[in-house]
Write the structure tokens for this entry.
Amino acid sequence: DIQMTQSPSSLSASVGDRVTITCRASQSISTYLNWYQQKPGKAPKLLIYGASTLQSGVPSRFSGSGSGTHFTLTISSLQPEDFATYYCQQSYSPPPITFGQGTRLDIK
Amino acid sequence: QLQLHESGPGLVKPSETLSLTCSVSGGSISSGGHYWGWLRQPPGKGLEWVGSVDYRGRTYYNPSLKSRVTVSVDTSKTHFSLKLTSVTAADTAVYYCARGGAGSNWPNFDPWGQGLLVTVSS
């Protein structure tokens, strides 16, 4: 199975900060990489698919990049509603589909 | 607007079968060529994909669960189901249903249901 590793596992930041979360795959997955946001007690929400394509309705302050084994999710200017846990997910040669362990983004 | 809603027992005894249903409203299971999936999240932990099905009944399963899992679509095409046999405490989790993408995008899940906590305990 393809292993997905996110860093950092947790992160504290302030409103207005620029934040970057990294996701690494154990082998090349081209751009078959999705990002999800999950708020406490809620279901995950798809933010980005294909490594860099914003899902409809997602604010433009979110962006994704990368290919192969190294990917990043960037929030250009943190808003109060962005404090959540973020997961990457690979969809290259499934099954199985696998997720990173998550990055918890807290208010500093 | 497409909405999904999980239902089923919140408590299952060890060694028994977990059975959940996902009701789909605001859209049809048989339109657009989408897949429909089940995922789970143990309390305080990360996400795990369980399995997916399309309207014709074609399935994909997580190999780690494949021997115990069945995902199926109801003939009315208004809901799809999950059965997980021989459950243990390790199967305690919030179970989510979600719509996958169409074709090769089948692993892209959006939207999701609200989730249902299933506890395995005697």
